[in-house]
Amino acid sequence: MRMKRPVLAACALALCFAGAACGESSYELAVENGFAGTEREWLESLRGRDGAAGAPGRQGDPGQDGKDGKDGENGKDGEDGAKWYSGSGAPKDETGKVGDFYLDYTGGGIYEKTEVGWMLRMMFEMGEESGDRELIEIVFDLGNGTTESRKIRAGSTVQLPVPHREGLLFLGWYAGEDAEPVTEDTRFYTDTTLTARWKELPRVTIEAGGMTLPVNETYSSRVTYTGTGTPKAYVEKGGERREITVTGSSWGFGECLKRDGEDFYTLYFQFQEAGEYLIVVEGTEEAAKDSVSVTVTA
After folding, report:
1. Which of 178, 91, 201, 194 is nearest to 142 (CA)?
2. Distance CA 153, CA 123 (A)
3. Which 3 state secondary structure label does DSSP give 29?
4. Structural Rg of the chain based on CA atoms
5. In angstroms, what CA-CA distances link 213 with 270, 277, 295, 296?
6. pLDDT band at residue 237 under the 50/70/90 scheme
7. How many CB atoms within 10 Å of residue 200?
8. Do 245 and 285 touch, CB atoms closer than 8 A?
9. DSSP letter string over 165-193?
10. % helix / strand / coil in the chain, to the nearest 5?
11. Do the bridges between strand 84-87 and strand 101-104 make them parallel or antiparallel, or are there none, so unpaired?
């Protein structure tokens, strides 16, 4: 039977009082034999060295998979690639966009859409009749140093591009100074250079820019108009527009546009009310237009 420690201690104490010889403790013996230190330090000195490391334990079971993360945002759509078109004959100018291609399955041509229109890039035989005809080159000269060329079979028509230049009106393609303009039905039998003809678009120019003037002071400016017919002048204030050709209005403007030459006019007006005004001169053509701002002070 195992005794608890208090019982053992009581028995040992009883033996000592009974006259039994109580021996010295192991700590006291250690001190007598040269140990220097406290009882706690002596107890610590009794601890043995660490034993050798044990063998590694077995690998643990895999943990559970974590939850899926949130989906990322969708990327931007890519640009549309080139498209292929096909048909009988050359492509129409309004077909496709720059970078697209076209197959003419009767004439035997592959076209590419460029800034100036469809350009023939390759010819292939469609049979004995078309294969016997030689290839010729049609050069399009825009007149500003820019040229494009197409190759067609001799005796064929060609798709005519419609070019654009700032401030100019395109009149057509010509094979010579005195030649008639070529059309979609014109057939070519030799290498040919076609030159674009242009006309300057009508324009209106008010020479005097925006200015500030007091009420009842006359404003005048030279106006250039290169179009046909007679231009008209207007004044705008607060979203309201009036033609300045009559007298007696509440804003106080009078006869204002006087012709001084073939293409030149003089613009006059006078205001009796302070405010911000916009003077507009328009030709008979839609593109011919100019305007200036005027601040009238009291």
Report:
1. 194
2. 8
3. helix
4. 52
5. 10, 11, 6, 5
6. confident
7. 9
8. no
9. -TTEEEEEEESSTTPPBP-TT--B-S-EE
10. 10, 35, 55
11. parallel
Query: 278: closest CA among 206, 215, 228?
Result: 206
- ∠ at Cα 85 (95, 184), nearest 5°? 50
Q: Which residues contact 116 (CB under 8 A, 6 or more apart)?
A: 140, 142, 146, 148, 161, 163
Query: Taken in order 56, 58, 64, 70, is the CA torsion positive or negative?
Result: positive
Which amino acid would we find at residue 209?
G
96-111, pLDDT tens digit by residue? 999 999 988 666 778 8
Domains and CATH numbers, the chain: 84-200 (2.60.40.4270), 204-297 (2.60.40.10)
Has residue 15 got a pLDDT over 50? no
Q: Tell me the CA distances in angstroms from 82 to 25, 48, 77, 110, 148, one per residue in order.
A: 102, 85, 15, 14, 20
Per DSSP bridges, beta strands 135-141 and 147-153 are antiparallel
Residue type, 225: Y
User: What tokens appear for 264 in the block?
Assistant: 């030149």
pTM over 0.70: no
